[in-house]
Write a structure and sequence with these properties.
By secondary structure, the protein is an alpha+beta fold. It has one domain: Factor Xa Inhibitor. It has 3 helices and 3 strands; from the N terminus they run αββαβα. A 3-stranded antiparallel β-sheet has the order 1-2-3. 3% of the residues are buried.
Length: 65
């Protein structure tokens, strides 16, 4: 039986923690951040947990991660 290919774009965007939770970077960090409040800028630096609706899809796309 052949190997299942990993979807590389998904593998680069999501990480699995030691307790098998999925983490992702918070969106909207690319540009136009100078006008954001300081609190918003600090919150964007953090990783967030992935929603449960996405977890099933991500696990299917990254079988070996």
């Amino acid at each position: 039986m052949s190997k299942i290919k990993t979807h590389q774009a998904t593998a680069k965007r999501f990480r699995k923690t030691a307790k098998k939770k999925l983490k992702q970077r918070k969106g909207g960090q690319d540009h136009f951040n100078a006008r954001e409040a300081g609190k918003t800028k600090r919150q964007k630096r953090r990783d967030i947990n992935t929603t449960k609706t996405l977890q099933k899809t991500i696990k299917m796309l990254t079988p070996y991660n």
